[in-house]
Amino acid sequence: MLEVNDLEVRYGAIRAVRGVSLKADTGELVAILGANGAGKSSTLMCIAGALKAAGGSIRLDGQDVTSANPEKMVRAGVATVPETRDVFPDLTVTENLTLGSYTRRSDRAGVTEDRERMLALFPRLAERAAQPAGTLSGGEQQMLVIARAMMSRPKVLLLDEPSLGLAPVIVDQIFEMIRTLKQSGLTIVLVEQNARKALSVADRAYVMRLGKIAASGTAAEIGAATDLSALYLGG
Ligand SMILES: Nc1ncnc2c1ncn2[C@@H]1O[C@H](COP(=O)(O)OP(=O)(O)OP(=O)(O)O)[C@@H](O)[C@H]1O
Question: Among 15, 18, 36, which is best to mutate for testing ligand 1, by the most ligand atoms less than 8 A from CB?
Fold first, then answer.
């Protein structure tokens, strides 16, 4: 479904991503793990079309999408949840969800149906449907941005650090949500510093270090072979 080959991302002279290759098959949940500054977000944002690749290629369903902009990527079926977790604070939960479907303006019935499906799937959001999104808790806002990304009917969902800054019990709820979405056959690429949590839902994982893939394997292999605490410390 998604194939990244020899990807390079640069910020001026800084080579943040150095020849990264990875793939995600249909319905797979692939985690990208690594310490602060390893290049995880840069890799993800480049796949999303928000950063220009300085080299390498990105293919979606066999099509080359290396130089596609973010809107084209959404239309091609790739939805992204950046770590900034931005909701439209003055708009309600329902209105925020509707805005996630901007690429499907002519499909009003489909949009309503999907919105209802998201609210049915995630009751916590349904209970707050008429509430301004700015008044939701951090965890609820994270749920909302993930549900909003689903409103474009993606084939691939890119998630950047969904657990960031959330209490452990809330992180559990977010991962439960990710598990639910995976069950629908969605392909997911999950960037996480919380390696243990990510490996609990992932099929496969890549470990990044200094802009490169340092290890890859099934979630079980990576969990067994990697010193997960070192990932947090920059090892
Ligand atoms: N806008 C930018 N300008 C210059 N350098 C940047 C920029 N964004 C990231 N970098 C650098 O690129 C490298 C990779 O950063 P990136 O954010 O991709 O890592 P990360 O693994 O996602 O880390 P984190 O978990 O802290 O987000 C780091 O050295 C970082 O300082």
Answer: 36
